[in-house]
TrEMBL record:
HAMAP family: Homoser_kinase. One of its GO terms (molecular function) is ATP binding. The lineage of its organism: Bacteria, Bacillati, Actinomycetota, Actinomycetes, Pseudonocardiales. Belongs to the GHMP kinase family. Homoserine kinase subfamily. Residues 212-261 form the GHMP kinase C-terminal domain. ATP binds at P90, H91, S92, R93, G94, L95, G96, S97, S98, A99, A100. This is Homoserine kinase. The keyword Transferase applies. Pfam families: GHMP_kinases_C, GHMP_kinases_N. PANTHER family: HOMOSERINE KINASE (PTHR20861:SF1), HOMOSERINE/4-DIPHOSPHOCYTIDYL-2-C-METHYL-D-ERYTHRITOL KINASE (PTHR20861). PROSITE patterns: GHMP_KINASES_ATP. It comes from Prauserella cavernicola.
Length: 293
């Protein structure tokens, strides 16, 4: 059996929705999967990301682990595997490359089991990451609101307003989510929590119905300032874009900058030296699998 999994990148948080909001973006990893009688072979091809050096190509490979996890859960045996990963999502930049790999593996497992992805797929994917924002976006596409009840992860998928044209500014610098989560405080002042509740609620409306409210709605007091010392150039670009009226945020745990424009470009006069800037449309589909018998 052979199948091809196409999985989108994602941006998380969108400013005020820390560990809650995600959005799928039109930049895709593609994984060709062949189920064989025995053995494991993983080929990793750089389809533009340019930084695949550290990727493991054994049982620790994230796609393999997620695929095996899903197949185990679904009761399907996969004796041998050949994977060819065409990676386009840059690693350690805040564009959800790990979540995309996990979602690709889980979607492949579901396809092998002849099942369509469901809430258990989200559960499996989110368990790898500890939060569901990126994983839900890569699974379902569009704009997602994720939440957790005890150990259980949930997400609702919404259609973002069609006039939103995300632009990303990707620096060469990498950043570790684990390290920048370590910069966050254990508790925040009640005033900041109340500020965030209002902005997050407003953001759902702004992202789906009234993009002109996005500058206010994406204001954050829970994570970006605490993480800023880890990537000063990112913090500077977010601030400068916002001063120009562009709703800009750190993408996920950074260091990529996300600008939720309605023009597809950043304004003249904003300094983007050192960043690779491109428009990435919202991916409305989420992970997609085609099979060959
Ligand atoms: N919500 C997560 C964070 C996204 O900000 O740490 C990164 O995976």
């Amino acid at each position: 059996m052979r199948l091809r999994v196409t999985v989108p990148a994602s941006t998380a948080n969108l400013g005020s929705g820390f560990d809650t909001f995600g959005m799928a973006l039109g930049l895709h990893d593609v994984v060709d999967v062949e189920v064989r009688d025995s053995g494991l072979e993983v080929e990793v091809l750089d389809a533009g990301a340019g930084d695949m050096g550290a990727v493991r190509t054994d049982e620790h490979h994230l796609v393999v682990r997620a695929l095996r996890r899903a197949c185990g859960q679904l009761g399907v045996a996969v004796p041998g595997l050949h994977l060819r990963c065409h990676n386009a999502i840059p690693h350690s930049r805040g564009l959800g490359s790990s979540a995309a790999a996990v979602v690709a593996g889980i979607a492949a497992g579901y396809a092998i089991a002849d099942r369509t992805v469901d809430d258990m797929a989200l559960q499996l994917a989110a368990e790898f990451e500890g939060h569901a924002d990126n994983a839900a976006a890569s699974l379902f596409g569009g704009f997602v609101v994720a939440w957790q009840e005890g150990e259980r992860f949930h997400a609702e998928r919404l259609d973002p307003h069609p006039s939103i044209r995300p632009v990303v500014a990707v620096p060469q610098q990498r950043s570790s989510t684990k390290e920048t989560r370590g910069l966050l405080p254990d508790s925040v002042p009640l005033a900041d929590a109340a500020f965030s509740a209002g902005r997050t609620a407003l953001a759902v409306h702004a992202l789906t119905a009234k993009p002109e409210l996005l500058l206010a709605a994406t204001e954050d007091r829970l994570h970006q300032d605490y993480r800023a010392p880890a990537y000063p150039a990112t913090a500077r670009l977010v601030r400068e874009l916002r001063e120009h009226g562009v709703p800009a945020t750190v993408s996920g745990a950074g260091p990529t900058v996300l600008a939720l424009t309605t023009t597809g470009i950043v304004p003249d006069g904003v300094g983007v030296d050192g960043f690779d800037v491109s428009e990435l449309p919202v991916d409305l589909t989420g992970v997609h699998v085609t099979t060959e018998a």
